[in-house]
């Protein structure tokens, strides 16, 4: 049996009970059983964490006076520790979130390690500039950390989201108060232990599991948090933005939902496109902001595409996510489960063709049969709303111009896919799509070096890549009067 | 010693290194590798020739080393070219994985730090305390720095006129010849390998005949950590044979050389005579150290005497403002007299021997010229021991700008002190040299600091410090001190070919 030792709030490199004594029950969604309880952070705990992060950020502190290259080394060391504990973390992740263990091990943990290493390498490469201004001045910019950063992360990729958030923040020299999702706090608390082991000074990272309406709200409203980064639903993203405006105008970056179009032209490699569209939707039980949940297929291949997609969906193996051979685990919790089922019902009611699935999968737990709807029209709820479940919508289109229009008719704009062998179509469509990530002849191809983020209501700002550094930097311009400027 | 405490190359937090933490060295480290390293294998020279490498503290032979000549260079270039072919493991590797390999190499060097420091001291003569606390840690830092760049060296997409999609690829140049000197053997190897490998090139490296041993041990680590065969090839050999073969080779795409300006000229000519291979050069210097404040004696001493005076950027023209001149000279002489010269394996030693007989003779020749031309010999000027190549810390005062010791690079423990009156005057005199590698100014006045640093024609200017290096900061020369910059992001430029790709599109939109 796996050990689950870390159950307390992590503040100032110490383990704390919550001030009010609240506890969060943590469940295994595959069995419904209680795994354990962890301390629940509320307002006072968030205050404590912020004070600790602020102290760690004071001028002259260990963290502020550390060589940038040493900050990078700490991140690299953390990556090494995650690699050491990879099996344990992947197991915790599968138990806590219901995701397939082999996915957790090969995808989530790999991305976590690589992201930490990637930002470890950036720390001493963040350059300001010297600038030829008019007049007798020497002018340069310093790229300083912003300060105390509040980070609120979701339950769909718990440890990976943790790394995506802390890595760029720490790389740039900030300190962090991070609230993992109440559904999935366990890997974050293990990371906290590794952060201490790696040698990060106290107060640099503080981990405070709690609920959105209390701890999350406390963070977004806090008068001494300089920046908040949130990944989650668009509905809550709006609340975060309002809270920032209502409090101290803290900087805000948001990674929100998507209803991502995946456009398949008749001149594609059909079997490959079917497979990519399938994994593009069903990966992680459909619980991805990037899910390609509107598959637009060009008319000549539509019927065949649907047929093959259904065959693929039917062949999926549901079951205990810890076992090899299982493709799909449970949804994260009852609330999500109910929402997905409701949208499935709406699909049936509004006249889409239910090709397969559409119901609960027998066993106890929160399993939903892989579901495929065809003949979906753009006005249906399943075509407009983010389902976040194993429900694939396949639409038909006739022309490039039409599909671009339809793909862009959404408030979202996170990702998109294009399958075609024609270079002109590939370049035209990818330029036209209003999405932060466009994949051509692939889907979900992600890497730490490549920026990720949304157009429109899918968010603002970019994570990953060099671009993420901007979001964690304050630029200070320094201008010194000199007696004689020379070029 | 004091040099380790002062030297700003290394600012590790105290918990990593302190004088108390330097392990007692094995003064007779074993040599494990003394052949040519080609295609991840050890080879004798095609000719079968070997040469001796000498311990400069004793003048004794350490061992024989295989000597590469043109035929071996040919083999190495073939291996490097094959490792660079389209579709090779090295070309197909994720950039991040190249970075991972560089990090593993850094870790392996860190693991074997004590041994490498012993071998470096044995072969080069630098004090062990410095090899261990300065050279090795900075090798590790340099490799880690460039490991981090591997997957961050980004091209651009570019909004050109017309219906086109235009972008640049930052590609490796190809087979890079690298010729490194003997004054910082391991560090120079790291400065060369880091950027070249981070950007995806393959390398044929000729190491200095005076100090081949540590580079060859690192070759074994390169193989151990998993670099594909042919990516790095290391050849001990002589300049006029192996070095020249690299510089004129028709299938080497780029040559990087660190060494004397005299040889730098030859490298550049060889490139022009052969295939116009890209050339970067890090050459000599006669760097001015301008003293306007009265607390610079220790730093100025260090600026000249570090590494037995064998630094391209040594502060070898110390210009002191007239009002503080006499006291500065007196205190500098007193400090030079106190410099501890001796067995480099003794932890108290500050100064070891010069690297070989040739350097030893050359330096003593310069000392004679100084005396002959009328400079004032304030201390030292002679041999410091019965065997080995030890020279006394030497200070000349009242040096005039036209003296030989004022103009030529001595590369030894010989300090020249000049007097000046005004800032404008000293700027002119400081720039009156064919060199332009480094310079420094010591002043508390913010205006003077800005004015002088802007006016000095030198690739690195230090203010209120000297010899401060970081893997992050570019280093290189103006004028005859070289072309191109090493270290920092700038260091990547020299190992990159930029390819512009322009694709016709039906309709461009912003």
From TrEMBL, chain A:
The active site is at residue 255. InterPro entries: Ald_DH/histidinol_DH, Ald_DH_C, Ald_DH_CS_CYS, Ald_DH_CS_GLU, Ald_DH_N, Aldehyde_DH_dom. Residues 15-478 form the Aldehyde dehydrogenase domain. Keywords: NAD, Oxidoreductase. GO terms for molecular function: oxidoreductase activity, acting on the aldehyde or oxo group of donors, NAD or NADP as acceptor. The keyword ATP-binding does not apply. The keyword Electron transport does not apply. It comes from the Eukaryota. CDD domains: ALDH_F1AB_F2_RALDH1. PANTHER family: ALDEHYDE DEHYDROGENASE-RELATED. Belongs to the aldehyde dehydrogenase family. This is Aldehyde dehydrogenase 1 family member A1. It comes from Sparus aurata (Gilthead sea bream). The gene is ALDH1A1.
From TrEMBL, chain B:
The active site is at residue 282. It is an enzyme of class 1 (oxidoreductase). Gene3D superfamilies: Aldehyde Dehydrogenase, Chain A, domain 1 (3.40.605.10), Aldehyde Dehydrogenase, Chain A, domain 2 (3.40.309.10). Its EC number is 1.2.1.3. The keyword Transferase does not apply. Keywords: NAD, Oxidoreductase. The keyword NAD applies. Pfam families: Aldedh. Signal peptide: none annotated. Residues 42-501 form the Aldehyde dehydrogenase domain. CDD domains: ALDH_F1AB_F2_RALDH1. Coiled coil: none annotated. InterPro entries: Ald_DH/histidinol_DH, Ald_DH_C, Ald_DH_CS_CYS, Ald_DH_CS_GLU, Ald_DH_N, Aldehyde_DH_dom. One of its GO terms (molecular function) is aldehyde dehydrogenase (NAD+) activity. Belongs to the aldehyde dehydrogenase family. This is aldehyde dehydrogenase (NAD(+)).
């Amino acid at each position: 049996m796996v050990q689950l030792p870390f159950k307390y709030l992590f503040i100032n490199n110490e383990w704390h009970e919550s001030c009010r004594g609240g506890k969060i029950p943590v469940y295994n969604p595959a069995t419904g059983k209680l795994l354990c309880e962890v301390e629940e952070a509320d307002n006072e705990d968030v205050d404590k964490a912020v004070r600790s992060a602020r102290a760690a950020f004071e001028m002259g502190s260990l963290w502020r006076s550390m060589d940038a290259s040493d900050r990078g080394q700490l991140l690299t060391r953390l990556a090494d520790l995650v690699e050491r504990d990879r099996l344990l973390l992947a197991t915790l992740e599968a138990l806590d979130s219901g995701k397939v263990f082999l996915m957790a091990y090969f995808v989530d943990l790999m991305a976590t390690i690589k992201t930490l290493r990637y930002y470890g390498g950036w720390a001493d490469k963040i350059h300001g500039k010297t600038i030829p201004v008019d007049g007798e001045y020497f002018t340069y910019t310093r790229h300083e950390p912003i300060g105390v950063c509040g980070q609120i992360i979701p339950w769909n990729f718990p440890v990976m989201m943790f790394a995506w958030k802390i890595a760029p923040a720490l790389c740039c020299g900030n300190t962090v108060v991070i609230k993992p999702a109440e559904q999935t706090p366990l890997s974050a608390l293990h990371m906290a232990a590794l952060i201490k082991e790696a040698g990060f000074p106290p107060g640099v990272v503080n981990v405070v599991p709690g609920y959105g309406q209390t701890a999350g709200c406390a963070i977004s409203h806090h008068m001494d948090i300089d920046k908040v980064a949130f990944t989650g639903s668009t509905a809550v993203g709006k609340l975060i933005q309002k809270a920032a405006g209502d409090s101290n105008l803290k900087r805000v970056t948001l990674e929100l939902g998507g209803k991502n179009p995946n456009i398949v032209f008749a001149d594609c490699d059909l079997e490959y496109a079917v497979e990519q569209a399938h994994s593009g939707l069903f990966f992680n039980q459909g619980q991805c902001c990037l899910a390609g949940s509107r598959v637009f297929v060009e008319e000549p291949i539509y019927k065949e595409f649907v047929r093959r997609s259904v065959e693929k969906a039917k062949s999926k193996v549901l079951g205990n996510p810890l076992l090899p051979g299982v493709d799909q685990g449970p949804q994260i919790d009852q609330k999500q489960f109910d929402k997905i089922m409701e949208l499935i019902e709406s699909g049936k009611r509004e006249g889409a063709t239910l090709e397969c699935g559409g119901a609960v999968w027998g066993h106890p737990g929160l399993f939903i049969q892989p579901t495929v709807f065809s003949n979906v029209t753009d006005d249906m709820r399943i075509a407009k709303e983010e389902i976040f479940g194993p429900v694939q919508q396949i639409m038909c289109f006739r022309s490039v111009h039409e599909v671009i229009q339809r793909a862009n008719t959404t408030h979202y704009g996170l990702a998109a896919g294009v399958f075609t062998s024609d270079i002109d179509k590939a370049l035209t469509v990818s330029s036209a799509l209003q999405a932060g990530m466009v994949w051509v002849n692939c889907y979900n191809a992600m890497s730490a070096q490549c920026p990720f983020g949304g157009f429109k209501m899918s968010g603002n700002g970019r994570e990953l890549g060099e671009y993420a550094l901007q979001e964690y930097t304050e630029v200070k311009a320094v201008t010194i009067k000199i007696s004689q400027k020379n070029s | 010693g004091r040099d380790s405490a002062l030297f700003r190359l290394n600012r590790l937090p105290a918990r990593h290194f302190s004088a108390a933490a330097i392990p007692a060295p094995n003064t007779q480290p074993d040599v494990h590798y003394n052949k040519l390293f080609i295609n991840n294998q050890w080879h004798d020279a095609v000719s079968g020739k070997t040469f001796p490498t000498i311990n400069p503290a004793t003048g004794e032979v350490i061992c024989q080393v295989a000597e590469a000549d043109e035929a071996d260079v040919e083999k190495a270039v073939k291996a490097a070219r094959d490792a660079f072919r389209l579709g090779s493991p090295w070309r197909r590797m994720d950039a991040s994985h190249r970075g991972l390999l560089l990090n593993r190499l850094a870790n392996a060097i860190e693991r074997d730090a004590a041994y490498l420091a012993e071998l470096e001291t044995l072969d080069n003569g630098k004090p062990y305390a410095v090899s261990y606390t300065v050279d090795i840690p900075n090798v590790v830092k340099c490799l880690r720095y460039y490991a981090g760049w591997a997957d961050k060296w980004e091209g651009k997409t570019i909004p050109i006129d017309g219906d086109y999609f235009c972008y640049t690829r930052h590609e490796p140049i190809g087979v890079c010849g690298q010729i490194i000197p003997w004054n910082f053997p391991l560090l120079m190897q790291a400065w060369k390998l880091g950027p070249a490998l981070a950007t995806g090139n393959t390398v044929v490296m000729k190491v200095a005949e005076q100090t081949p041993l540590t580079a060859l041990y690192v070759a074994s680590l390169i193989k151990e950590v998993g670099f594909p065969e042919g990516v790095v090839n290391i050849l001990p050999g002589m300049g006029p044979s192996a070095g020249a073969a690299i510089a004129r080779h028709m299938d080497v795409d780029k040559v990087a050389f660190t060494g004397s300006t005299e040889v730098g000229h030859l490298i550049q000519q060889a490139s022009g005579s052969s295939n116009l291979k890209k050339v970067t050069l890090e050459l000599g210097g006669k760097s001015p150290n301008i003293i306007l404040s009265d607390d610079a004696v220790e730093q100025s001493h260090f600026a000249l005497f570090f590494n037995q005076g064998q630094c391209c950027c040594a502060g070898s023209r110390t210009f002191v403002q007239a009002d503080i001149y006499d006291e500065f000279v007196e205190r500098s002489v007193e400090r030079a007299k106190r410099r501890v010269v001796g067995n480099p394996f003794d932890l108290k030693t500050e100064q070891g021997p010069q690297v070989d007989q040739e350097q030893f003779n050359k330096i003593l020749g310069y000392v004679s010229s100084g005396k002959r031309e009328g400079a004032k010999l304030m201390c030292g000027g002679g041999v410091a021991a019965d065997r080995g190549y030890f020279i006394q810390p030497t200070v000349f005062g009242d040096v005039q700008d036209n003296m030989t010791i004022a103009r030529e690079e001595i590369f030894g423990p010989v300090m020249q002190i000049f007097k000046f009156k005004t800032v404008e005057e000293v700027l002119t005199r400081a720039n009156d040299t064919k060199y332009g590698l480094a310079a420094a100014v010591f002043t508390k006045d913010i205006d003077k600091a800005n004015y002088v640093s802007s006016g000095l024609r030198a690739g690195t200017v230090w203010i209120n410090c000297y010899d401060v290096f970081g893997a992050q900061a570019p280093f290189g020369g103006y004028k005859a001190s070289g072309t191109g910059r090493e270290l920092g992001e700038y260091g990547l430029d020299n190992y990159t070919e930029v390819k512009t790709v322009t694709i016709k599109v039906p309709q461009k939109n912003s």
